[in-house]
Amino acid sequence: MELDIDWALRWLALAAEAMAEHREELIELDRPIGDSDHGENMDRGFRAVTEKLADTVPENPGAALKLTAMTLMSKVGGAAGPLYGTAFLRAATALGDTPEIDAATLAAALQAARDGIVARGKAESGDKTMVDAWTPAIEAAAGAASDGGDVRKVLQAAAEAAEAGAVATDPMLARKGRASYLGERSIGHRDPGAVSSALILRAAAKAAE
Ligand code: ADP
Ligand code: MG
Question: What is the pLDDT of residue 1?
Fold first, then answer.
């Protein structure tokens, strides 16, 4: 099995659904350690992606991800907009115009996305950001791919690791972004961007089922 444009379109539709469904949860997570806008930002951004895709049909997964990147950059705002924009753009560049994505290419594209987030935001693992979802995700994805897992296995592994990574941000002290202004008081709260990242990766896995 390989991933094609239909998978990419299903992924983006499921991600938009997840952002709408989890909008309030993301707002509540961003309340104690941020400014309560993450759910609104992500829902607005992915709704705009859905609208764009209603009148533009991208030729390949890379083109779909590039359109997503441009839309998220212009619609999400805040810290998350440019970070997700960079992630989707780097993934799109890694895919180029390939019509079919195999496991190794997929793992490389996920790695490119994570590297883009790190290049843009300069957060390290343990800083209590979305990087704490993405880094375990790409490690699990690379592991699944090198064990001979197919694209479905790679995405399952990435989603599971991202979800665990988001939970693992609870006891962390925030060192980047708005939450870092709280210092010790950021401890005991889950990072909203790590949760939205896990939702996006779970949507990718569901789209391949
Ligand atoms: P803002 O903080 O501007 O209100 P959002 O609420 O939309 O933006 O997004 C906040 C999320 O962005 C955080 O939960 C965190 O995951 C992520 N984030 C913030 N700064 C960084 C950074 N430097 N590197 C990686 N992720 C970051
Ligand atoms: Mg916020």
Answer: 85
Give the Å distances, CA to CA, from 206 to 9, 11, 131, 154.
12, 8, 22, 12
Q: What is the rounded CA–CA span in Å between residue 29 and residue 44? A: 17
Decide whether any atom of ligand 1 lies within 6 Å of the 39 Cβ: no
Q: What is the pTM of this model?
A: 0.98
CA distance 60 to 5: 5
The full set of domain ranges for the chain reads 5-208
List beta partners, residue 101.
3
Instruction: Report which bound ligand comes closest to the CA of 81.
Output: 1
Class of domain 5-208: mainly alpha
The answer to whether 178 and 77 have CB atoms below 8 angstroms apart is no
What digits encode the pLDDT tens for the residues 65-86? Answer: 999 999 999 999 899 999 999 9
Q: Which structure tokens are listed for 6?
A: 């239909």
Q: Note whether 46 and 84 are within 8 A (CB).
A: no
Burial of 57 (0-12, 13-18, 19+ CB in 10 A): exposed
3-state SS assignment for residue 77: coil
Q: How many CA atoms lie within 13 A of 145 on its CB side?
A: 22
Does the beta carbon of 121 sit less than 6 angstroms from any atom of ligand 1?
A: yes
